[in-house]
Input
Amino acid sequence: MPRRLACAALLPLLAACGGKDEVHRVQGHVFGTQVEVSIYGPSAEQAKAQGAAVLREFDRLHHKYHAWQPSQLTALNEAIARGEPFEADQEMVSLLRSASELAQRSGDTFNPAIGRLIRAWGFQSSDIKDGGAQQAEIARLVRANPRMADLRIDGNRVSSRNPAVMLDFGGYAKGYALDRAAQILRAAHVKAALVNVGGNAIALGQPGARPWMVGIRDPRGPRMVARVPLHDNEAIGTSGDYERYFMKGGKRHAHIIDARTGQTVDLVASVTIITSGGADAGLRSDGNSKPLFVVGPQGWCDMARRLGLKEAMLIDAQGRVHATPAMLARTDQGKGHGESVRECTSAAGGGAL
Output
């Protein structure tokens, strides 16, 4: 299945930004996806060492926050199921607090507490079956109503008033990994870099005279919908229905679930957002795309405004492109879509072009 961000297709563009052989790439596989660190400026040996440091950090995070293999996160979930408190560390507590805040702001359309629903649908497995979940089990889990608000955090001690809470950071940890990568590379005094984790990317600096360029892919084909420049400390994140899904009865069931209904979301093909500033641009690029995807074409514009997202693009299941004015202004969007582009005018930063 295609990756969510077309970085691989844009490698010639990246090299052209800084001149021949000035962008060095280190690749790996973690979080169940391809990752790539593109570093501008130093020698190939330096870039290899710096990229390797990032990949080691990614591996640490993968093993710490894996929801389905033994990890600190599964230990927390097991304690919650037993009705017992769990002693976390400060890093985990910070992630839990930030995820809880986004869940509250989004009206629980972002909800990492629905691990049991994810497992009921079979999306915890790398080998997704086409059977889907039993509707009676879905209804039971929806009634249990697990939410981030059920968590209680006292110092580093975490508990839950609802034993149905099962945490899965699959829609959050990759963004946090980007921020950690940025910290590592800045500490190493890297002049410019682009880090891509399976469709989420963060930029550091600028490779020569022009910014980093990435592409937003068509969710139903290999072509690009638009090209986007990324500047220092800007991150781009895409949530799509084409990486983890199964088909049943002619209907696509993707891994993004609406916790309010327990059902998979089938009205949206992809959502892409750009975030910037602060120490958590990557985290925000990952988590904030999910509420827009869940509420769908009718509600995404208001949700973007609610979350303060100025640059966002949604491609619906019929292939129609919807975008905020700020996103349209940034991209070369419109080529190949013409009148099908629908402008969002009520979101943050909205207004007529």
Summary: The longest helix spans residues 44-64.
